[in-house]
Amino acid sequence: MSHTEDLTRYTANFVDELVRSGLTEVVISPGSRSTPLAMTIVEHPGMKQWVIIDERSAAFFALGMAKQLNRPVAIVCTSGTAAANYFPAIVEAYYSRVPLVVLTADRPHELRDVGAPQSIDQLKMYGDYVKWFHEMGLPDADPKMLNYARSKASRAIHVANEGNAGPVHVNIPFREPLIPDFTLENVWGNKDSSMHFPTIDGKKRVDHTQLSYLLEKFANKKRGLIVCGPQTNRDFAESVSELASKWQIPVLADPLSQVRAGQHHKDLVIEGYDAFLRNETVRKKMKPDFIIRFGAMPVSKPYLFYVKDHKDVEQYIVEEHSGYREPAGNRTEFIFSDSQGLCEDLLAMDKEMLFDKEWLEDWQRMNQTAKKYLINPTHTETVTEGEAVKCLMEVIPDESFLYVGNSMAVRDLDTFFMTTPKQLDVLANRGANGIDGMVSSGLGAAANGQPTTLLLGDLSFFHDMNGLLAAKHYKINLTIVLINNDGGGIFSFLPQQQQKDQFELLFGTAHGIDFSHAIEMYGGKHQIVTSEKDLEDVLFASYKHEGLSVVEVKTDRTSNMEWHRVQWKQIETELSNGE
């Protein structure tokens, strides 16, 4: 059998098994050594491919797509530093539990460590940031090797999805010549349509004895608190709201919890806690008897201070499969169970829980006070960052996705995203919390046609401007709300702001860039707004615009900091006067 036939059948069986195992989307970055893999993916009728030139952008594009689809997406690159450019997105995927299948082409073994060009050590190059690594054997069309190729492809998809989802890495060496021959008979191999490793992966549930144990632990308490951190299960909101309603305890809902938006009951949802928990007196007064937290740690730093202030409080963290996400360092009991199922099972126990009614009313009163000032904030002559987010949440379409950047963007969303009957899926890269790759992530989420808005700051936009090429190439519809405060606005809220001599050089980092040129270069529509009415009108129009639309809101870092502090001070003053 010839080298070309070995190469073709081996690669085709591998790719075909990826498709049988449920993979339909692949993001390819061009290169020579990856030719067999890339050409075979394009040839397969069950695979949709996206070609993104820059590997860092490609990996974040796939990350955003995998988040939106909630299933694995593959990335393919050539050998050498191309694979190294995947690293930031792989780290984010690992910590945010996103299934990525990383397929790196490599030089054959005899060309490694001998000075051959475009050759680096790719074995386990992502270390512990992937759930599984495998170095494939060289292409061989022997039936045993074709079966082997299928087994590894199937396993890659399974492991990426299994338990806490995450990235897997398969390194594939290829010898030259690299061009497959798709005229071969039965190039895709076995006609059997089933996957190589079919799996039935059940959800973890807590048994009756364990449920009774939990209810007994809560039964003699008066002040219960449910906290919903970042998570992506849209159906969870209904279950947790029903549990809170039955128990009559407050629900602190992070903006990424999927609990603030939707048709479920939200009378017990507390969304303004970030504003009033800034006050130490309030934090001390509102000491709970127990906390049940679903999902990751909330974005809010005041909430982190709150749990740190009450280290002796019983805390229960619900993890879907496994994990240890408790940055406060408090003593914690972990419950490994499906979150939605746990809520339903606790409700099914039908045990009456008598918690302090005044406790709930205090949370609701403080929340209403916060919302009064946040919904109708002190106005300025120009649009502030908080007002821009508030306006966006009023205008954003129902049944759409909102992808939010880190630093100030997600914090302003936390503050100004009030409960709404709209169905919004809110996504973010909160695994490693970096500002890189945000444009590509937002475009990846929008690539399959769902209405999508990306909210981010100017430094995040600058970090990933080359990601805009995907919008031009694939005519992706995306509205970007670009908050431009000419630098690192979040540092104005941190102690570094007091270091006047070095602040602007090291933290403010003003860039003075006119982004319109880059946006127009990539075929986008760009508009700068100066008032809330302008912002509202331009946003409405952007959702009808085909392609990329960037709505830029220019703000001043110092004024923005002072404006935020005015809102927080007003809330604090009214709460203090109400004591």
Automatic annotation (TrEMBL):
Signal peptide coordinates: none
Note accompanying the cofactor annotation: Binds 1 thiamine pyrophosphate per subunit.
Cofactor requirements of the protein: thiamine diphosphate; Mg(2+); Mn(2+)
Segments forming domain Thiamine pyrophosphate enzyme TPP-binding: 439-553
UniProt cross-references to InterPro entries, sorted A to Z: DHS-like_NAD/FAD-binding_dom, MenaQ_synth_MenD, MenD_middle, THDP-binding, Thiamin_PyroP_enz_TPP-bd_dom, TPP_enzyme_TPP-bd
Entry GO MF terms: 2-succinyl-5-enolpyruvyl-6-hydroxy-3-cyclohexene-1-carboxylic-acid synthase activity; magnesium ion binding; manganese ion binding; thiamine pyrophosphate binding
Domain Menaquinone biosynthesis protein MenD middle stretches: 219-404
EC number: 2.2.1.9
Gene Ontology biological process terms, A to Z: menaquinone biosynthetic process
Enzyme class: transferase
Name of this protein: 2-succinyl-5-enolpyruvyl-6-hydroxy-3-cyclohexene-1-carboxylate synthase
Species this chain originates from: Virgibacillus necropolis
